[in-house]
Amino acid sequence: MTTSSTEQWQLSAVTPPLTNDVVHIWRTVLDAPSPIVDALKAILSNDELDRAEQFLTQRLRHRYVAGRACLRIFLGAYLERQPASLEFRYGSSGKPALTCETARDCVHFNLAHSRSTALFAFARNRRVGIDVEHWRQMEDGSHIAQRFFAPEEVEQLAKLPPDDWRRGFFACWTRKEAYIKARGDGLVIPLNEFAITVQPDNRVAIVRSEVEPTDVDRWSVVELDPEPECSGSVVVEGSGWSLQRLRLPLWPDQIDGLPPLIRQSF
Fold this sequence. Notes:
It contains eight helices and twelve strands. By secondary structure, the protein is of the alpha+beta class. The strands form four sheets. The chain has a five-stranded mixed sheet with strand order 1-12-2-6-5, covered by helices on one side. The chain has a three-stranded antiparallel sheet with strand order 7-11-10. The relative contact order is 0.20.
């Protein structure tokens, strides 16, 4: 990750205004101290608390609680509602959404995490999808790409210098996952039935889609570079929007050290 991309993540403890022509991406760390996690549980629903208990380790349980609590806190701030009062509905693929009573309340969102890094995307009246993946060693990367990616994507990856191949692979992977999540289709779309761009400076998300040909003109993509050796992508419906990258302060050891955005949610 370059210095310039690091500086693009603005440290913030408040939610800036979310208008129709801007998309907010929040980055946070999910590994929070136990006293903070215990406090965050107060704003989760019983279903979410039950889901947290299904994870096998305390670390995973705590990460789930922190992620869902942050989602509620961000949405509550944008909608000027108490985070604990929000009710989610879920699509056929499990993608969460809020019921929009008015256009002002129609905040689309999506979240993703890799290890302890979580990304949240928010937009008004635009569908969004986001994905994040830490890089891994890819001894069989070419085989995986040929099996799951579209021919156009395999061809783009083959043209990359060897030192850039792993970054290109995960850029491709996160873009494809973000597109599927933006559509809300889950894994019912075969990954090789649509082709995306691999170049990081290309905002055209879809170059071919057998699923929905009109998607070529419907979606835009931005690569996020959340941290070193980690790829992130956001796919957004429509064009003419700008992106604002935000990050929460690191978790303090005690509740008194939480920023007002979080502390006032309890």
